[in-house]
């Protein structure tokens, strides 16, 4: 198999398996992996605009808005006017959203630490830039109609 294709497939399979296992860990918290990712991003980087959240999540257009609607309906985030631009809306965690983000991080901590240990042998500092360069290349390709 071509080494580039093998790398891409290995990352895809690893991501699918990580998502599946992470979903099981999150089930008792009543949150999906995508919701958990958004809540943790907002806890660490927020408040953010919907576009800012989408960029950090590498989400499809339209998805961050629907995700924000679901997180708001659950009482985990609130929309508020941006202090920098009154035309913009920021997403911020509510107290219950912050508590849930803390619980998500606690649940995923052993998961992330185990993955870091597994990657340390090969050098996470080398692997991540390699995957990022591959992603940049793929994004630079012209769209196929």
From TrEMBL:
InterPro entries: HTH_MarR-typ, MarR/SlyA-like, WH-like_DNA-bd_sf, WH_DNA-bd_sf
SUPFAM superfamilies: Winged helix' DNA-binding domain
Transmembrane domains' residue ranges: none
PROSITE patterns tied to this protein: HTH_MARR_2
Domain HTH marR-type: 4-140
Pfam families: MarR
Name of this chain's protein: MarR family winged helix-turn-helix transcriptional regulator
